[in-house]
Amino acid sequence: MAEAGIEATATSTEERFLVRNFFGGIWHGAFLALGNSLTHPGTVLAGFIAILTGSTVWVGGLTTVLQVANVLPQTLAARYIEPKKYKMPFLLAAIYIRVASWGLLAWLIYVIGKGNPRLLEWVLVVLLAVFYAGGGFGGLPYTDIIGKVIPLNKRGAFFATRAAVGGTLAFSSMALVRYVLKSKPYPTNYAMLFGLAAVSLFIASFGFLIIKEPPRPEGDSPVPPWSEYVAQLKRASKDLADLVAVQMLTSFSLAVIPFYTVYGLKVMHAPVAAVARFGAAMLLGVLLANFAWGWLVDAVGSREMLLAYGIVSVAAPILAILLAPMGWQWLYVPLFLSGAATSGSSVGFSSALLELAPVNLRATYTGVISTLTLPQAAVPLLAGILLKVMSYDQVFLLAAAVTAIGGVWTLRLPKRDR
Q1: Would you say 133 and 77 are in contact if contact means Cβ atoms under 8 Å apart?
Q2: Nearest 5°: CA angle at 49, between 44 and 51?
């Protein structure tokens, strides 16, 4: 009887921690999504860069810089973070670095945006690089913490719910984005959006403050010698090879997302306020697709989910080609599918990584996959350059073809033993 009572108490405590941790993770994801939607790289940020520089190369090039900045800290930092008993302090530090960089950028856009646009271009590069580097650094402890506090059979539901709640907030924020862009003069409108994004990210940090992170079973361990760490990197590289191939190939469809907005503004003469509508179309895709992705992951595994994600990713650029001649409003369709694909990428690759990574090497595997997929950072820059000599239709068709290869490659991923 006493033993049964102890077991019931332990189970009750575990359930309370699961609910608390689940809620904390959802809270963080929701307000992170809200903050990101206010400065979305595929819509708001792309529109800002296009107005500031007037160049597709800048749009693609800066997207490349951001992806490189996101990856660079990861593999080296993983060696030091992996042995730590608790990862939460590193995650919170990364979050507050991102908050500070967004807030400073908002202030500088307001102060120098109109009088010195050339200086603002390079300020934008530096502070966006800091922001994305903070995100890359934070991804290491984040993956390990979520892997510890969310059980395997709940991860699909967690990632889907996180994205759905965040998508709802982000979708609702599009009315605010549209109002700010229309009612405030440039560059005050963009300064306000970046400032509001900084506030949202700060609120997002409260989610991790309530999460109960269990300690690493081995406690704090010494930083492994380079010979041992290199062996871990080789093992991770081998285990992740096919997942890396799928992620890199399907990234071609995601890489052209910012150019739908540029195409609408520069070629199809959509009004500036349409940027908010484009963002709303993407976020609606995120919102409606999330639970389908989460259900697929929990029901059949990440491989089958990523196959479905590949199909949607191919459809987006093809429909952009077919529907664009009917008017800029028809770009809502490929942007909707791009939103669905974006959430599919987040749910599918996050789940697949946690399935493949050993429990005690999650940070290392996170750093390795980020490093191995680094070449995909050049794809937006390549697209921007190609648009100097090719039409938008040709670039979109090329993206669809390469993405289709990635969709087929998902069949090489291991099928989860259920």
Answers
A1: no
A2: 95
How far is the C-alpha of 109 from the C-alpha of 114, rounded, in Å? 8
Measured CA to CA, the distance from residue 127 to residue 31 in angstroms comes to: 21
**For residue 114, what are the contacts with CB-CB under 8 A and spacing of at least 6?**
186, 187
Closest to 221 in 3D by CA, of 359, 365, 85: 85
b (16+ CB within 10 A) / e for 95-104: bebbbbbbbb
- State the chain's maximal CA–CA distance in angstroms: 78
Domain annotation for the chain: domains and CATH numbers = 18-412 (1.20.1250.20)
Q: What is the pLDDT of residues 263-302, one digit of tens each?
A: 888 778 777 777 778 877 887 888 788 778 878 887 788 8
Tell me the CA distances in angstroms from 121 to 69, 116, 118, 162, 370, one per residue in order: 17, 9, 5, 33, 27
Secondary structure E strands in 286-338: none
pTM over 0.85: no
Please say if the pLDDT value at position 205 is more than 60.
yes
Q: How many CB atoms lie within 10 A of CB 355?
A: 18
